[in-house]
Amino acid sequence: MSIADMWDRLFWSAIIGMFVGIVWLKFLDPVVPCVGPGLVVAFTAGGIYFYLGVRKARRTAQTEESAVEGE
């Protein structure tokens, strides 16, 4: 995974985290008047998105390596 790909994944993780946080504040904050769980959920959503992207990139790199070695 290149630096540019990592940066892109990190940027979109932050965007997803902000989106989840805004949705939490809009719809769930009137019901659950505590911001703490909303922050945890938002950070978790962004972290999961980042982790899944990095895992996919590693698998792709390993597949390409094994294909090159197999030739």
> What portion of the residues fall into strands of 2 or more residues?
under 5%
Q: Give helix % range.
A: over 70%
The main β sheet shows up as: none
C-alpha Rg (nearest Å): 17 Å
Number of helices, counting only DSSP H or I runs of 4 residues or more = 2
First-last Cα distance = 23 Å
Task: Report the order of strands and helices.
Answer: HH
Mean pLDDT: 88
What structural class is derived from the secondary structure elements? mainly alpha
Low-confidence stretches: none
Give the overall silhouette.
Answer: elongated
- Total strands: the figure is 0
Write the layout of secondary structure elements.
Blueprint lengths: L2 H26 L6 H36 L1
Helix pairs in contact: 1-2
Description:
- This protein has helices at 3-28, 35-70.
- The relative contact order is 0.14.
- It has 71 residues and is an all-alpha fold.
- The chain has 2 helices and no strands.
- It is elongated and about 60 Å long.
What does this entry show, briefly?
The chain is mostly helical and 71 residues long.
